[in-house]
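The data are quoted verbatim for reference:
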Amino acid sequence: MTDLHDEENEIEVYLLFKALHQNSYFPDRHITHHILLLKSRRDNEFYYTDLDSSNFGFGTIKIIFGPYKFYPQKTIYYQPLGICRKRTIEEIKLFAEQSNLNGQRFSMFKQNCQHYVSSCVEFMKLDKSELLNNNVYWSKDSQGITLKPLPTTQALPLKTLTCFTIMFYIFLRFYLSHS
């Protein structure tokens, strides 16, 4: 494990919320695909690691690591997680490449994107002292993604979004069953 003390070697770590099976982002962490977003303070570039599975989540798992390209003209929903001072981008890439999840069968209950992100965060041993809270924030572009977002960039409270989503789903099921 690397113990990095200078700010240039630090990595900002975020959780990115992607809409399921769409090229957009969504603010509700309960019904989104989780991607771990890394911002290197050395080169100011974004990287990501992601659990991908074939066949819309029912197939074989492939762990991905690489530079991240944001969807153009889409609002980005993210949660600041902290700063990684004990690992390098290269060590995180190696962790992803050597993940025991590669080639395994996807499981909604035991081997999903949330489990993978949790294992990465544990591996990185983040310094969470700079976290403000567990809120989801938004930005119009990658330049606005920060560990200390402004309160005006906070997304709707998760309970509100989750209740709205559940109610919409119930309405949609009822409507479709009676059409």
Summary: Helices lie at 54-57, 89-97, 113-124, 158-177. The chain has one domain: 7-177.
